[in-house]
């Protein structure tokens, strides 16, 4: 038997009404989050991820739909139920840390425990233990202003986990921190989550962060969930051009289907391209979008014949872990990435190949 979801969002719609008109921020969104699952809401600015998080938290009241936390209805438009945030048994971590500046680190963490009715004597050791867990045991007497951004976010994390709620909501918690601290905290957050076993809903527009943290990523597109799945599934099998484009980088070109079989043959500006990744409903003559990730293109070896594209190598950039190369072809520019340096032929051109199972084709407009 599988455990009941920690969070169930059912047919949630939220419309913001302003003097300039109304804006549908969430359009019939449904989503289940398992206990101890880490779900990342990913998408560009304005797609509705913060609104969804705030609706789960109870900071925003949806127009219609239902939200259940641990099987208990906390919002239902049909039954007129709206449980306020403090009664939803969840914690939140914000981008701005939201610590009390006049309280010590320990007192900041004690605060939510006291609010839940425990005495100071009961709360203090629990708060100290949470601070030890985030590596700040020695800083309990310090004030937030005396700590670095990363340390302040650790205090916020301690405060979120101390309540023992099974659900923690994160609103871009690492985006104010520099890259190194962000990477460190990502790892710490993951090990805390594994250790404690809370469910996490985490908002970000940073795809690397999403891929690194998530059990499942929900890619959002103007108020809807465009695709939800494990990071590998989202990256390797994007359900639409939008998802393919937003997660990872992609060369995109338009094409027309020439033949449909086990593989699809498409006429593009780069020449004829074969794909083994295409929707079932393709037909000859149909206009399509072809997507090839830069890292799936390799320099063609002698005798190679699959999906060859030749272009003039105009620039190679060394980026440390990878190298980026730009090929000017008759059909436009192609970006490829490699780990090893590449050398153009004596006429300045380079021929690359891309395996057909790495070429994605979508119906135009998908
Ligand atoms: N209080 C509000 N009043 C009116 N419109 C709002 C309000 N809050 C959000 N919106 C609009 O709803 C849409 C979704 O906003 P939301 O903040 O959920 O997006 P987001 O994906 O979290 O974006 P970001 O990454 O920029 O925070 C946006 O178009 C936004 O302008």
TrEMBL record:
Annotated ABC transporter domain residues: 7-247
Highest taxon, organism lineage: Bacteria
Cytoplasm as UniProt keyword: no
Pfam family, one: TOBE_2
PROSITE patterns given in the database record: ABC_TRANSPORTER_1 (PS00211), ABC_TRANSPORTER_2 (PS50893)
InterPro entries: AAA+_ATPase, ABC_SmlMolc_Importer, ABC_transporter-like_ATP-bd, ABC_transporter-like_CS, Mo/tungstate-bd_C_term_dom, P-loop_NTPase, Transp-assoc_OB_typ2
Record SUPFAM superfamilies: MOP-like (SSF50331), P-loop containing nucleoside triphosphate hydrolases (SSF52540)
Keyword annotations from UniProtKB, A to Z: ATP-binding, Nucleotide-binding, Transport
Any one GO molecular function term: ATP binding
SMART domains: AAA (SM00382)
PANTHER family: SPERMIDINE/PUTRESCINE IMPORT ATP-BINDING PROTEIN POTA, SPERMIDINE_PUTRESCINE IMPORT ATP-BINDING PROTEIN POTA
Family affiliation: Belongs to the ABC transporter superfamily.
Protein name in UniProt: ABC transporter ATP-binding protein
């Amino acid at each position: 038997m599988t455990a009941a979801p920690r969070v169930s969002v059912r047919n949630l719609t939220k419309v913001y009404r302003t003097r300039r008109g109304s804006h549908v921020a969430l359009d019939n969104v449904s989503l289940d989050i398992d206990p101890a699952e880490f779900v990342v809401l990913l998408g560009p600015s304005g797609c509705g991820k913060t609104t969804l998080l705030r609706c789960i938290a109870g900071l925003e009241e949806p127009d219609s739909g239902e939200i259940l936390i641990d099987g208990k209805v906390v919002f239902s438009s049909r039954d007129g139920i709206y449980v306020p945030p403090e009664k939803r048994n969840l914690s939140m971590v914000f981008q701005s840390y939201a610590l009390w500046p006049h309280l010590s680190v320990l007192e900041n963490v004690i605060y939510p425990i006291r609010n839940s009715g425990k005495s100071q004597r009961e709360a203090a050791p629990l708060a100290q233990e949470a601070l030890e867990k985030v590596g700040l045991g020695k800083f309990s007497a310090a004030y937030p202003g005396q700590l670095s951004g990363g340390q302040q976010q650790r205090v916020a994390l301690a405060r979120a986990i101390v309540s023992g709620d099974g659900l923690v909501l994160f609103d871009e918690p690492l985006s104010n921190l520099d890259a190194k601290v962000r990477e460190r905290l990502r790892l710490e957050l993951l090990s805390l989550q594994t250790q404690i076993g809370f469910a996490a809903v985490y908002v970000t527009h940073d795809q690397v962060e999403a891929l690194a943290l998530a059990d499942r990523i929900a890619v959002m597109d103007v108020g809807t969930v465009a695709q939800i799945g494990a990071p590998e599934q989202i990256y390797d099998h994007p359900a639409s051009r939008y998802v393919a484009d937003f997660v990872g980088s992609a060369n995109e070109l338009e094409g027309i289907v020439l033949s449909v079989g086990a593989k699809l043959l498409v006429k593009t500006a780069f020449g004829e391209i074969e794909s083994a990744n295409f929707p079932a409903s393709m037909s000859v003559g149909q206009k399509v979008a072809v997507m090839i990730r830069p890292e799936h293109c390799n320099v063609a070896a002698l005798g190679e014949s699959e999906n060859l594209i030749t272009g003039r190598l105009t620039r190679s950039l060394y980026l440390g872990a990878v190298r980026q190369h730009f090929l000017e072809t008759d059909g436009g520019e192609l970006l490829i990435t490699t780990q090893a340096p590449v050398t153009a032929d004596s006429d300045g051109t380079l021929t690359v190949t891309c395996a057909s199972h790495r070429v994605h084709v979508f119906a135009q407009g998908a």
